[in-house]
Amino acid sequence: MLYITVQDKVLADRPTTLAVKIMGYDRAMFGFLPSGPEWRNLRKLVIVELLSNRRLDKLKHIPESEVNLFIRGLYGIWKSKTEGSVPVVELTERFGDLTTNVVVRMVAGKRYFGDSGFKNEEARRFQQATKNFLHLVGLFMVSDVVPLFGWIDSLTGYKGKMKKTAKEMDSILEGLMKEHKHKKKLSSIDELEQDFMHVMLSIQESDPSAQISDTAIKGTCLELDIFSGRLLMDAMVYVPSFVRLESFMLEKVSGF
């Protein structure tokens, strides 16, 4: 009870890790910010403005359209098969492209992958940077436990990889932010295209008291892009796998 009533701020704080410090804009991601006014403001922004029912309802056409295009793409592969052959589809990769399209469109208003599966240079960079981020953020770093021996992390090469990944991801997010700012100047963003980044930039411009910096916007977009996309992809990959493994479930589903 002492920890909940007296030391609640300490209990609610989050540990500082080398990976989050380097790749997460020095803990600018709201999920890793220390408890305080900045964290409360950012949490309020995310809950009230970004992940509210009203905002998600405005953007619900994005997952609907992407799933529709995904199904059409699979049907196109089946339709183009030659007689007597069975087309083989790498669903893991396609699910990854689908979730990337959904999440990035909702967060930053950009669609990376087309119906034909074509991947542009930025799409490849984004996927690789995301993969590297998720790998590096889960590694054990000596400096996280014993800061005095932090030099060991430099010898292993992981610290350099973190800096490279952070630079790559920041380059992508900075480009997306510049595109949004340019569109805002031209007033060319439709109501249905007001993604999360646009909303945060609008609040930054209209309400200085919110104290939303460009770094906080990029950190929030990075967190929403990576972690929500990863969770969505895992769900889409594992559910069909479980259905395939459990024959009775497959029979039950096919019976409807």
From TrEMBL:
Transmembrane segments: 133-152
Keyword check for Metal-binding: yes
Molecular function, one GO term: heme binding
Keyword Transmembrane helix applies: yes
Keyword tags: Heme, Iron, Membrane, Metal-binding, Monooxygenase, Oxidoreductase, Transmembrane, Transmembrane helix
Gene3D superfamilies: Cytochrome P450
GO-annotated biological processes: terpene biosynthetic process
Matching InterPro entries: Cyt_P450, Cyt_P450_sf, Plant_Cytochrome_P450_Monoox
PANTHER family per UniProt: CYTOCHROME P450 82C3-RELATED (PTHR47947), CYTOCHROME P450 82C4-LIKE (PTHR47947:SF8)
Name of protein: Cytochrome P450
Source organism per UniProt: Heracleum sosnowskyi
Lineage, uppermost ranks: Eukaryota, Viridiplantae, Streptophyta, Embryophyta, Tracheophyta
